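Researcher: Predict the fold of Protease.
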Amino acid sequence: MDKKCWICGREDYMPFKCRFCGKVFCPQHRLPEQHACEGLEHLKQYGADGSDRAYRQSGSDDLVKGMLKSTAKYAAKSAVRGMRDNISYSMKSSPSMAIIYLCLFSFFLQLVPGYFDALKLVPDLLIARPWTLVTHMFLHVGFFHLFFNMLVLFFFGPELERRAGKGTFLKVYFIAGIVAALGYSLTSSQPVVGASGAIMGVFAALAVIAPEIRVYVYFIPMRIVHALILFALVDFIFLGANDMVAHTAHLTGILIGLVMGLRIKKDQRRSGWHDPYRY
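Model: Structure tokens for Protease follow.
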């Protein structure tokens, strides 16, 4: 029997074979909800004999509820564990956390008259105000805009730092953010603020460097690569929509993150670097 985990590729002395899908997994991914078990999904939908009727008569509603509850519980535990690890890591002068603190401080400074207008990016005034290519990344429109951007940065920024280095993280963050702003400026004349372009660049670079990372999108487990594709598709579909979201900046940030991630991965392979966080 193959001893390599189907999810992360980890080779284990005593691997677990899922009784629903028949695939082999390491202890971390052995539970059906931890590897998004296809066999269990098929059983829930069609039953043991392959019919919808068998499923309806099997009394599997409790199984479905149990699986959903277990998945949500595991996602919550993963989030808490990641939060604890990142808080501990932030004590070691993490650039990601420094950016989060600056964005929080800037958010309160937005109460000062003229502060927001002086630092936001206005495409038509870009040549006269080039500093806004950077300063717009520290401004946010409302609490939820700030909260969700910083939440993503909090979880994935330190991960890129650990795997690529703090200096490399800063390069990815600011290059992706600046180029994303330029890309947006070519397609719109409306003012823009927010760190989304830079954060999408970090997310994309991490997806290239560590594609085995699993994330939860609305409690649905998936690989970080699949989550990135989903986010890119959403932005692509809503291009041109009047929804106050800089989709062009997101897509440009993703593109830059992918390019830089490939470059980082190539350099790591050339130097023989081994990811200590990879199973």
